[in-house]
Amino acid sequence: MELKLNNGVSMPALGLGVFQSPPEETTAAVQTALELGYRHIDTAAAYGNEREVGEGIRRSGLPREDVFIETKVWVSDYGYDEALHAWDKAVGKLRVEQLDLLILHQPAPDRMEKTIAAYKALETLLADGRVRAIGVSNFMPHHLQQLLQETGVVPAVNQVELHPYFQQREVQAADAEHGILTQAWSPIGGITFYPGWGENRKNVMRDPAIAAVAKAHGKTPAQVMLRWHLQQGRSAIPKSTNPGRIAENFDVFGFELSTEELATIDALDTGVRSGPDPDVARPERFAMAIPEA
């Protein structure tokens, strides 16, 4: 299943995420995913595993043009020249000549001037053909508004925390208004256990309403949630290094949720974020330097 981005580029709707995937497990996970039929891999400079993602792609034996590679510029590389160099670092580690989608990892509102400058560098990379599409991650509507006022290219994608317990409807509406594709990180709610954020969290995987829908289709709760994203026109990038789970997460194209079932899942929204708030500065984390190689 492909989604058409606002610049005409096609992107596979479902991808493999590698956030928190240990480097030593990432190569095998990427290779397994590609052998199972995935054609979209999402990584980031801050994950520390771009090199292993590239190795997994090479080991799959697939032609480069068959795999959609998405990665992210970290905040310590914001600024115009710094973000251009971030591209150099990313393609060097991935060992490719072009990125399919390059996005800014955070709005970093405590340094919005540098965020805007970094996005202008992405615009240059797009014009030069060094990337096929550009976008953002974790941008709330007010961040998007400022970006759109000060830059020329509308982001193709906005990747945000999005699962049945946290649906970010205002973000989805703002994205839709501007023709930006919403992409879900933590699409099956696994990040309800995001390290350091919140206590007494409920596990969406164990939600009885989702379990009932899953039982009706002979599917798992994870498969139902991924199907919910896809039927509502979003991209989803579930993370796993477990071969069985990687396969399970891709087996979501042979069934369809009813209007009532979609509404049941929609009704589970709590409005409670599980990951970091994009409006809260994290100077120590933002200062993390991305290695050259």
Which descriptors apply to this entry?
293 residues, alpha/beta, eight-stranded parallel sheet, 10 strands
Fold and architecture overview:
With 293 residues, the protein is an alpha/beta fold. 40% of the residues lie in helices and 13% in strands. The protein contains eleven helices and ten strands. It has an eight-stranded parallel β-sheet. A two-stranded antiparallel sheet has the order 1-2. Strand 1 and strand 2 form a beta hairpin. The longest helix has 16 residues, at 112-127. The chain is globular and about 55 Å long. The chain starts with a strand and ends in a 7-residue tail after the last helix. The model has no long low-confidence stretch (mean pLDDT 95).
In short, what is this structure?
The chain is an alpha/beta fold and 293 residues long. Helices cover 40% and strands 13% of the residues.
Q: Fraction of residues in helices? A: 25-40%
Strand order of the largest sheet: 3-4-5-6-7-8-9-10
Number of strands: 10
User: Could you name the ranges where pLDDT drops below 50 across 5 or more consecutive residues?
Assistant: none
Oligomer: single chain
Mean pLDDT: 95
Give the CA-based shape.
globular
Give the termini separation. 34 Å
User: What structural category characterises the helix and strand content?
Assistant: alpha/beta
The ordered string of helix (H) and strand (E) elements is EEEHEHEHEHEHEHEHHEHHH
The gyration radius over C-alpha positions equals 18 Å
